[in-house]
Amino acid sequence: MSATLILLAAGGTGGHVFPAEALAGELIARGYRVALITDVRGKALGVTQAGLDLHVVPSAAMLGQGLLGRARAAVTLARGFLASRKLLKRLKPAVCVGFGGYPSVPPVLAAQRLGLPTVLHEQNSVLGRSNRLLLGRAKALVTSFAKTLALPPQTPPITWLGNPVRAAIASVPEFTLPQERFHILITGGSQGARVFGETIPSALAALPQVLRELLSVSHQVRADAVTAAQETYRAAGIKADCAPFFGDMAKRLTMAHLIIARAGASTVAELTAAGRPAILVPLPGSADDHQTVNARALSDHGAAWRVEQSELSNGGLTRRVTELLTNPAGLPRRRKPPVPSPNPMPPPASPTLC
Fold this sequence. Notes:
The chain is an alpha/beta fold. It is built from 13 helices and 13 strands. The protein has helices at 14-29, 40-44, 66-91, 105-113, 129-134, 167-170, 194-205, 209-212, 226-236, 249-255, 265-274, 290-299, 316-326; strands spanning 5-9, 33-38, 52-56, 95-98, 118-122, 140-143, 158-160, 182-187, 215-220, 239-243, 258-261, 278-280, 305-306. The radius of gyration is 21 Å and the shape is elongated.
C-alpha cells in the first residue's frame, strides 16, 4: 500500500518556501510522501530535501503593475490554476497545505475546487493577502505568532504552532561570545535587499579602524552590487565575503555573533531558533507593514534591536555596531526567544492522516 501523499504549495521566496521545506523533511521522516508546488523562483532557491517531489506551475503577483500588468497576472494565474488542477488529479493528494505567497494560490485554489481538504500556514504576524483569499474554504489555519492581525470575523479553527524551521538551522550550536574576530552576517532575505548593499558596507566602513580590524563579514548582496560592496569593505580593511546567495546559512549562523537582516517571518523564526542576536531592519512598505510587526515581536521582548531603514545611512547603524563591538557582553541578552515554543505534536503511530 502506497504511503499517503501530502501536497505543499509555497510562494517563490525563501520566506514561504523554506518553512514548506522544513515541514516536508518532518513529514518524509514520518513516512509520508510529499510533493511541493511552487513557481520558477521557488525552484531557483535550490530546495534539497531528499524525497521531495518538486513541481513548477505558472504564477504571478495578483496586483500586477497597472491595468495591463493585472490583466497579464490574471492570465498567468489562470494558467497556473489549470496546470495545478491537472497535476492534482494525477497525484491524488490527501491534503494540501498552503504556505502563502501568490504562487500558492493556483494549487490551493485548485485543491479547494476539487474538494480536497486544505490547511493554510501564515508565517507573518499579519495575515497575508493570498491566505486571506483562500481562507474561506480552508479547513484550518496555522499561525507562527500567538497573535495574528488582519484576521476576518469568520475563520476556520486556528492553531498557533510557530514557523517550521529547517533541521540544519534548528541544530545550530549555542551562541558564544567572540574570542578573536567579530562575525557579522548580513542578509536581506532570499531575494536580497538592494539598500543593504548600498548602505551597510559604508556604515561599517565608518567604524574606527581598531574596530574594523576585528570584523569578519558575510554579506548577502544583489548580484549587480557584489563588486561595489566587496570593494568598499576591502578599502576599509574589513574582511568580507559578499555573494548573491548563501547556500550554507546554517554554517554562517553558527559563526555569527550578530545578524543584520530584514524582518521577514522565516528570518525571525530562524534567528530565534538559532539563538543569535540581531539588528532587524523592517522593509518599508511591506504588505500591511507586516515586517514592522514581525520585528516588534522580538524587539519588544528584548530579543532583537529594531532599526529603521533610514538609520542605515545617517550613522544610526554605525553607532549601534560600535556599541556592540565595544561592549559585547550585551549580546546574549538579545538572543532569547520572546515566548516559549509550543510543544510539538507527537508522531503518529503509522503514516495515516488524522
